[in-house]
Design a protein that fits this description.
Layout lengths: L1 E3 L3 E6 L6 H8 L7 E3 H9 L8 H17 L4 E4 L5 H13 L3 E8 L2 H10 L6 H17 L7 E6 L7 E3 L2
Parallel strand pairs: 1-7, 2-4, 2-5, 3-4, 5-6
The structure holds cytidine-5'-triphosphate (CTP) and magnesium ion.
Amino acid sequence: SMKLPRRTLLVLCGPAGSGKSTFAARYFSAIPTMVVSSDYCRAMICDDPTNQQVNRDTFDVFHYIIRKRLFNGRFTVADSTALHAEARRKLWELAFHFGYLKCLVVFNVSLATCLERDRLRERQVGPQVIEYHIRLLQKALQEIPAEQWDRVYLLNEHDMEATIEIDP
Ligand code: CTP
Ligand code: MG
């Protein structure tokens, strides 16, 4: 159960196909604009959610929108893989700057499950990317304890149920 203050940045972290966007859509359906997605930011600037040539601009837009939401005191979910320490650090620092609670939700999902989910979906990232993401996840799981998140929620692939309450 996650009981979260209004001023929380909830950072999702996990491989492609681990269920981050599904989780975000499920728990934040009442106010979907709470979820800022790097894939959506990518599509907004180049009409192609898979174009890796525009990473820098994609994350400029992603961080910019998150910054403006935090400036306005809005509860925000950052939907990106956040598998690199540097990606997490950037989001951590945005939350810190605005005096937000810094929460990380880690999608600890196996290679086999991510591969299977990827295979069944429309926009596929492919096995090579997912294998790489699983290695980054293992590294992230080692690094995260030293990163000073206020809260870390580790979601198991067989138990992604959550109760999320946001203070009024
Ligand atoms: N899915 C599933 N069961 C879950 C979670 C997700 O079957 N518990 C399916 C979704 O329906 C989707 C696929 O797995 O077809 C990938 O889920 P998604 O939420 O899109 O994964 P993300 O982590 O957001 O992947 P990406 O990083 O590529 O955006
Ligand atoms: Mg997604």
